[in-house]
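can u do me a favor
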């Protein structure tokens, strides 16, 4: 049986934090605020895969009230979810995601992000599709106050 899940995440940009997106650090004057590394792209992907599995959401598996997850690379979340996929005999067919940010420029880093995400999920980078767009200067993302991401995942589960 094929199942699809969706994910969405948003975090505010703040001074004094490093910016992590797609498992890599990007040069920027602000970083995303959050309990872990606040990688909105990874968080949206995690929710999409968990949704396709029917396994709840990122907050259930990696609560921001647990010290274990403080400051951790969000790639660890994808590695843990990879274990859930294996436990259930599921195959992650592909993921697709969009990052919404005015700055920094994300497109030059997409291939490196795809490699990191694919490795964490145990799929070839060719099955990871990433896109970046602006919000045309509208809303919080358009004003540079935060970054958002949305994602979908397709999983094949045994019948």
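np, heres the sequence
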């Amino acid at each position: 049986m094929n199942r699809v899940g969706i994910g969405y995440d948003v975090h505010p940009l703040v001074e004094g934090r490093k910016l992590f997106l797609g498992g890599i650090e990007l040069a920027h004057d602000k970083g995303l605020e959050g309990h872990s590394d606040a990688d909105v792209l990874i968080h949206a992907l995690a929710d999409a895969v968990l949704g396709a599995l029917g396994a709840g959401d990122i907050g259930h598996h990696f609560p921001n009230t647990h010290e274990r997850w403080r400051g951790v690379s969000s790639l660890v979340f994808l590695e843990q979810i990879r274990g859930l996929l294996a436990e259930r005999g599921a195959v992650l067919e592909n993921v697709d995601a969009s990052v919404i940010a005015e700055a920094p420029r994300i497109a030059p880093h997409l291939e490196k992000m795809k490699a990191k995400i694919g490795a964490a999920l145990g799929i070839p980078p060719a099955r990871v599709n990433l896109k970046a767009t602006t919000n045309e200067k509208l809303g919080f993302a358009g004003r540079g106050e935060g970054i958002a991401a949305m994602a979908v995942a397709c999983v094949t589960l045994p019948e």
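The first strand starts at residue 2 and ends at 14. hope that helps!!
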